[in-house]
Fold:
Amino acid sequence: QVQLVESGGGLVQAGGSLKLSCVVSGRILSISTMGWYRQAPGKQRELVANITSGGRTNYVDSVKGRFTISKDYALNTMYLRMNSLKPEDTAAYYCNAQLRVGDWAAPLHDYWGQGIQVAVAS
Structure:
């Protein structure tokens, strides 16, 4: 069974920092692109940042220069370092991974974590 488990969320003052982690476990044969998404109340889920298997990164404009996505291949863990947090960063953050599971002939599928809350107080 594949699991994506996020940690590191919480409440922080504006200007503060948090580091989210996402650990991927299970019978995983390969990991393609991984990413962080967020969803604020009343808004659609949006991509925050992603990182390809080759290490190429992509960020939504609103977090460029403040957030850094990274990955530890050996630990199957992805991180999101969030600096200079703003109240508008408040949302539930979700880990996403494109995984090949169980069989090398199987296609890549999207898997999601359960989400973790980040709240930034003004």
Q: What stands out?
A: The radius of gyration is 14 Å. The CA atoms of residues 87 and 120 lie 5 Å apart. The mean pLDDT is 96.
